[in-house]
Amino acid sequence: MQDDNENAVMTLVMAQSPKFRRALLAKLENKHAAASTVAKPERIVRRKEAALTYGCTTRTIDNLCRTGALPRVRLPGRERALGIRESDLMALITGKGKCDQKIAEGGSYVG
C-alpha cells in the first residue's frame, strides 16, 4: 500500500515542471533542517546525583541551592523542588556558575 502511494506521488511530481520540482525539494530540505534544530529538553538531576557529580554531600548541594548559587527546578504549583538542571551544575563545576560570580565580586556563596 505504501509503495503504491509513493509511486503515485512520484508520478505526480515528475509530471511537474523542473522549476516546481526544485521549489518543492527546497521546501522539503528547509523543513528537514528546521526539524533537526529543535532543542532537546534539559536533563534534571536529583540532589544525590548532583552531589556525586560535584564531589560533595547532599547537604552542600542544599546549601548551594539555598544561597542561590545553584538554582532548583520547581514544577508550577509545587513547593518541593524537582531537582537541578544539569547545565547549571556543569556551570558551577566549570567555574561559570552564580557561586563563582559572587566570589569574584568579593562575596561568598554562603550569604
Provide a compact summary of the structure.
This protein is mainly alpha-helical.
Description:
It contains six helices and three strands. With 111 residues, it is mainly alpha-helical. A three-stranded antiparallel sheet has the order 1-3-2. It folds into two domains: 2-36; 44-104. The protein has helices spanning 2-14, 18-36, 47-54, 58-67, 86-94, 98-104; strands at residues 44-45, 72-74, 81-85. It starts with a helix and ends in a 7-residue tail after the last helix. The longest helix has 19 residues, at 18-36.
Topology (elements, then pairings):
Blueprint: H1 2-14, H2 18-36, E1 44-45, H3 47-54, H4 58-67, E2 72-74, E3 81-85, H5 86-94, H6 98-104
Antiparallel strand pairs: 1-3, 2-3
Helix pairs in contact: 3-4
List the main descriptive attributes of the protein structure presented here:
111 residues, mainly alpha, 2 domains, 3-stranded antiparallel sheet, rod-shaped
- The number of helical runs is 6
Query: Can you count the beta strands?
Result: 3
Helix and strand string, N-terminal first?
HHEHHEEHH
Low-confidence segments, given as residue ranges, are none
Q: Biggest sheet: strands side by side, in what order?
A: 1-3-2
Backbone CA Rg: 25 Å
Range of strand content: 5-15%
